Amino acid sequence: MRSWLAQYAMESAASLDEALRLLAREPGKWTPFAGGTDIMVLLEAGKLPKRNFLSIWSVPGLREIVHSPDILSIGALSTYSDLLADSILQSEFPLLCAAARETGALAIQNRGTIGGNIANASPAADVPPALLVYDATLEIASTRGRRRVDYARFHTGYKQMDLAADELIVAILLPRGRSDWKQTYRKVGTRRAQAISKICFAAAADIRDGSVHDVRIALGSVAPTVIRATSAEAALRGRHLEPDTIRTARAALARDILPIDDIRSTAVYRHLVAGNLLEGFLS
Ligand SMILES: Cc1cc2nc3c(=O)[nH]c(=O)nc-3n(C[C@H](O)[C@H](O)[C@H](O)COP(=O)(O)OP(=O)(O)OC[C@H]3O[C@@H](n4cnc5c(N)ncnc54)[C@H](O)[C@@H]3O)c2cc1C
Questions:
Q1: Taking residues 202-219, what's their average pLDDT?
Q2: Which of 3.30.43, 3.30.450, 2.60.40, 1.10.10 is the CATH number of 5-55?
């Protein structure tokens, strides 16, 4: 371990109010610590920029999945295993469960949280493309009250997000009613498990009489943030699914993404695979 633990402080909040009060009293001083699976990697690497951590792991009420008729609310502390154990998520939001199943291995799935995955803001994270496809909204709390943000607007640049230092993500809200859409989720990595994505693709389409009534397409690892492929979506909406439409959508997707060469892959490969995954889904 390349960090000296005595240099770090950890407080544990017993309630959401207590956590928010501490964050508000000294904004920026305390870093929320949920499952700690991203934070501990930085600790091990000796790269933790901050010294004070606020554990929210035991805060009651943030680990519930609440089913109401129109919306499903997922507490930010829900782990991947919690998501996989929920039968409504399994039947109505299969892309989210596919992403949870592909995230790390069992230890990470038991400890890593959905809120931590979002706030870690990695463009290569596996759950966010599914959240974009499902038009997720984030519920964010501080001592100033609660507010909601469309997840599609939350990430504002590489590791930048619409979250103040005194705020916590408390829930992720998913509108229900799309379980009959055609859906697909693909994570492409070096191995079948325990690999960071070279590219991650999630899509859902409402197909009526062979035409695309509505569609969502989202990708990870192809831009500074996870993205919705809005040009490709526009090229498909209202169109009959035929080879010409698919070619046009593929060309539009190439304009939506901005992949780079990095240690995991190349921009050329990511462009090619993104197009292939879209074409495979539409075909
Ligand atoms: C071996 C290994 C394999 C992994 N595999 C994958 C993978 O396949 N796919 C993938 O996407 N990720 C993977 N991860 C990354 C990680 O497990 C996930 O991002 C996880 O969901 C993070 O959640 P956490 O609760 O552990 O976050 P933490 O480490 O506790 O926090 C991460 C960041 O989020 C902030 N934060 C946490 N919760 C909140 C909140 N409620 N409100 C505001 N800020 C908050 C923290 O301050 C911190 O900045 C892997 C990690 C490891 C170590």
A1: 97
A2: 3.30.43
